Amino acid sequence: EELSDVERHELLSQKLAQCTVVFDFQNLNENLEGKEAKQTTLTEIFGYISERTGVITPDLYPNLFKMVSANLFRTIPPQINAFGDPFDPEEDEPREEAAWPHLCLVYHIFLRFLESGDFNQGVARSYIDNAFTMQLLELFDCEDVRERESLKTVLHRIYGKMLNMRS
Questions:
Q1: C-beta pairs of 150-153 under 8 Å, 24+ apart in sequence
Q2: How many of the other CB atoms lie within 10 Å of CB of 159?
Q3: Measuring CA to CA, which of 1, 37, 89, 149 is 20 to 30 A from 83?
């Protein structure tokens, strides 16, 4: 049965809200069903907002930013090597973030949102403020090169879209 646009919109909002649940990836075998379900839902969200126009409306911004914030803004563990010494980029291999399968999709969703023709700078301004931007910048402390590359791209898009933040 085909959903109406209103039903699809409500389902997208519900899926964004569902994806605020953050799983512990330190134990990879813990809550596998939940992790897989979230991965599937994030993939569905990304596909939906990538394939359609007019779906990112101002009333979705609260759930979108809650989902992005819940997943991305976390405590980054201190950078230490396997011996407990401070991490040395010249000598040590960087650790990869165990939650990357989810984080990668969250970054992709956020980028798609920022690049969308539906992006509304006026509405986004109340979410992408200095505090939000500072939290993004703090994530550069992570060791995972993939995340730092995603952050760089996100911040470039924000810089390009949010002219008022340039001063």
A1: 150/103, 150/104, 150/107, 150/111, 151/107, 153/107, 153/111
A2: 12
A3: 149
Helix residue spans in the chain (DSSP H)? 5-18, 32-51, 61-72, 100-115, 121-124, 130-138, 145-161
pTM listed for this prediction: 0.89
φ and ψ at 86, to 5 degrees? -55, 140
Q: Give 38's contacts (C-beta < 8 A, 6+ positions apart).
A: 18, 19, 21, 23, 102
In the block, residue with structure tokens 């910048």: 137
Side chain identity at residue 60, one-letter code: L
How many residues does the structure list for the chain? 167
Angle between helices 100-115 and 61-72 (to 10 degrees): 140
- pLDDT tens for 102-147 read 999 999 999 999 999 999 999 999 999 999 999 999 999 898 999 9
